[in-house]
Design goal:
2 helices; mainly alpha; 86 residues
C-alpha cells in the first residue's frame, strides 16, 4: 500500500497554496538531508531518462524539469541567512 499523499493544506501553516503560489516549509535538519537525498536520487533517474528519450519535445520537457530540480536542490543546500542583529 503506497504511503498517503500530502496535500498543500497538510504542509506549512495549513493555509492552502494556490497552484503556482509559494510554499513556506520549515524542515528539521534530518528532514532536510532526507529531502535532498530524495531529490538528488530523482535527478540521477531523470538524467538517465533524458539520455534514453528520443522524442525531442519530451526530451526538452525533461531537461526543463532537470533545471527546476537542480534549482530546488541548490536552494535547499544554500546556507540559511539569519536576520541581522539589532
Amino acid at each position: 500500500m503506497p504511503p498517503p499523499r500530502l496535500s498543500r493544506q497538510d504542509l506549512g501553516s495549513g493555509a492552502p497554496c494556490a497552484p503556482g503560489g509559494t510554499l513556506d516549509l520549515k524542515l528539521e535538519p534530518r528532514e532536510t538531508v532526507l529531502l535532498t537525498n530524495i531529490l538528488e536520487s530523482h535527478l540521477g533517474d531523470l538524467r538517465m531518462e533524458i539520455g534514453k528519450t528520443e522524442n525531442f519535445d519530451m526530451r526538452n520537457s525533461l531537461k526543463a524539469d532537470e533545471q527546476v530540480l537542480k534549482g530546488l536542490i541548490a536552494r535547499i543546500k544554500a546556507p540559511v541567512e539569519s536576520p541581522a542583529s539589532s
